[in-house]
Amino acid sequence: MPDGALPVLDVRGLKTVFRTRSGEIHAVNSVSFMLRPGELLGVVGESGSGKSVTMMSLIGLLPSPPAEVRAGQVMLGGQDLLRISPRELQDVRGAKVGFVFQDPMTSLNPVFTVGSQIMEPLIRHMGLTKAQARDRAAELLALVGIPDAKARLKAYPHQFSGGMRQRVMIAIALACDPDVLIADEPTTALDVTIQAQILELVKDLRQKLGMAIIWITHDLGVIAGIADRVMVMYGGQVVEQGPVAQLFSDPRHPYTRALLKTIPSLTGERSGRLQVIEGQPPIMTAAPTACPFRARCAHAFDLCHVENPARRPLDARPVGEGHDVACHWSPEGA
Amino acid sequence: MFTYTLRRLLLAVPILLVISLVIFLLVDLAPGSPMSEIPLTVPPDVRQKMIEALGADQPVFVRYLLWLKQFFWIEPMTLFDHWFGTSIVEGQQRILSWQSRSPVFTIIGQRIPQTLTVVGTAYLVGILIALPIGIYSAYRQYSFFDQLGTLFAMIGFSVPTFFSGTLFIIIFAVWLGWLPTKYDTMLEVTDWSSFMQQVKQMALPVMTLGLANAATISRYMRSSMLDNMQMDYVRTARAKGMREKTVVLRHVLRNSLIPVVTVIALGIPSIFGGAIITENLFGVNGIGAALIGAIHANDLPMVQTLAFIFAVLIVLFNLIADILYGLLDPRIRYD
Ligand SMILES: Nc1ncnc2c1ncn2[C@@H]1O[C@H](COP(=O)(O)OP(=O)(O)OP(=O)(O)O)[C@@H](O)[C@H]1O
Ligand SMILES: [Mg+2]
After folding, report:
1. What's the ipTM?
2. What is the residue with the minimal CA distance to atom 12 of ligand 1?
3. Domains by residue range for chain A, with CATH
4. Superfamily grouping for domain B111-328
5. Measured at the alpha carbon of residue A215, what is the angle toward residues A122 and A293, in degrees to the nearest 5?
6. CA–CA separation, B125 vs B218, rounded Å?
7. Which residues are CB-neighbours of B205 under 8 A, at least 6 positions away?
8. Most exposed among A129, A136, A216, B40, judged by the fewest C-beta atoms under 10 Å?
9. What is the value of pTM for the model shown?
C-alpha cells in the first residue's frame, strides 16, 4: 500500500437520514474515510451499524424517499459524487465504482441471460458493440473462474449455483475496470468452502487488476487475512480506524476490543467461554449527542453521556490516515 | 415444451367431454318448449310434427350423442367441404337452431365479426391504455398521476357498463352529437368515408368496454411493477449505471409483464363471449346478443353450442397462458 498516494476515494462528513412515518432514522452520522489506490479497506460492525447505508449513499443507490443524504462530500476522480446530477452519477456507477451485493440468489435478473447482464455495462459505459461486449463478457467470466465461459454466457441465473452467481456479480462489477470495488458482505450468503473460494478469487483479481476494494463483513477473520486497513462502525459512526496489524494488536475502542474477543481462536488455549457483547445496537432516531456505545460500554463515565467523542489520532498521522479512535476513555498505560 | 403442449391437449379431450355433457344436461333441464314462440292457433298435431322435425322429442342422451357427432364431425367437415369443394358430409344434418331453423354455425359465423371488431377492439384499446398507466403509476407511486390512475381504475371497476354506456350516449351522441347512438351492423367498409363512419359507430361501445378492461389490467400492471421494483436485481441494474429508462422499461417491465400477459390471455375468451349488456345497449348484433335471443326463445342447440364453444376457448386459453408463462419466464421448464 503506497502510503503517501492521493486517495482514489475521499469521503468526508457523510450524513444519511431515513425519513420514515415514525420519524427520522439517522443511519449514517458524519462518516469520513478514504481509500488509497489498490488498497483493501475492511469495514466491520454489527448488523444495523450503517455499513451498507454508508456505501450505498456514496453512489446514490438508496431509494429516495425515504433516504436522504444530508451532508458530506464524496470525492472520486476530481468529482464530488454528492453534487453531480443523477445522470452523471449513472455514468460513474458501474464504470468507476463496481458494487457486489450480499445475496447472489436475488441480485441477478432472472429473465435475462448471464451474458446479457454482463454485457449491459460494457455497452453502456465502454461503448462496445454487441459482438465486442460478448467477447469481453466471456473473458470476464473466465477471469472470475467460470469454466466453459463462452457457452455459459447463454445460461440463465437459475442455472448457476450461489457461488457461481456471486462470481458473475463480481464479473459485472469489474466489467468496466473500476477504480473502486465495493463488496457488501459478498460471502455471507455462501457456505464456507465457497466463501474461501470467492475470497481467493478477490485476492487474485486484486493482484491482477489493482483496483481499490471496500470489503464489508462481519467476519474479522476475513479482514485479518485480506485487508490493509480496517474501519469499525457502530451506530452509524466510525468508532475506530487503522492499519490492520495495529488495530488487531492494539485495539482502543471498547467496542473493537469486544468484537475481537468474539472471534473463536483455533490456536492458543481457550480463555474461557466465547464472549458476546451484551445489549442491543442503538436505533438512531436523532443525531447523536452522546457516545452511541455508552449503554453497552464497561468503561463509560460521565463525559460519555453528554458528548459524542470525536475521532482522535493515536499516532503521529492525521485522523483517517493512521490509527484513530472515537472514544473518551483511554486504556491504562496508553 | 412440445410434449407438454401435446399432453395438455390430450388431457383437454376428456375435460371437454365432461363439460359438454354437463352443459347439455343443465341446459336441457330448463323449462319451456322450442315451440313457445309459435302462435297458439297452430293445431297440436302440427305442433307435434314440428317438434319431431326438429328432433326435439328424442330422449336427451340421443340428442347429446347426435349433437356430439354434429359438433365434432359434421360441422368441421362442412367447413372442409366448403373450402375444398369436396362433399364428405353433404346432406347430413347440421346442428340446427330451433329458433331460426338454420345451422347454428351459420348464425355464429354471421355474428362473430361484429363481436370481434367491437369487443376485440375494446380489449385491445383497454390493454394499450392500461399498460402505460400501470407502468407510470408504479414508477411514480403516490404521485398525482398515480392518484388519478387509481381514480380512473376505481371508476372503471365500479361503474357498470349499462351506466357508463348510457352516460357516453347522452354526452357524445345526444348533447355533442359527435357520434351515433346505434351501431349499424349492415354498414360495409368500402372507402374512406364509410371507414370513418365505422370508426365513429364503434367509438362509444369501444370506449364503454375499454374503460372497464383498462381498469382491471392497469391495476394488475401497477401492482406487478411495484412488486418487481423492490427486487434486488433492480438495485443491481442501477449499480451498473443503467439509465432509469433501461432499469424500468427493460429490467422491471420484462419481469412484471409475466403475470400480466397471463391475465390478458385468460381474458381473451370473454371477447368471444361478447359483452351482452354493451352489445344490447348499442345494438351491436354480436354473439352476446345472439345468446340472449336464444335463451329467450328456448333455442337449446344454440345455447348449448355457444356455451360449449366458450368452454373450449377457456380451456384453450388456459393452455396458451401456461405456454406463454413458460416462454416468458426462463425458470419455468415444462417437460
Ligand atoms: N429503507 C430504510 N428505511 C429506514 N431505515 C433504514 C432503511 N434501510 C436501513 N435503515 C436503517 O439504517 C441502519 C443501518 O442499516 P445498514 O443496512 O447500513 O446496516 P448494516 O451495517 O449494513 O447491517 P448488516 O450487517 O445487517 O448488513 C439500520 O439501523 C436501519 O434501521
Ligand atoms: Mg448491510
Report:
1. 0.90
2. A27
3. 1-86+229-265+285-334 (3.40.50.300)
4. MetI-like (1.10.3720.10)
5. 140
6. 12
7. B118, B122, B165, B183, B275, B278, B279, B281, B282, B284
8. B40
9. 0.85
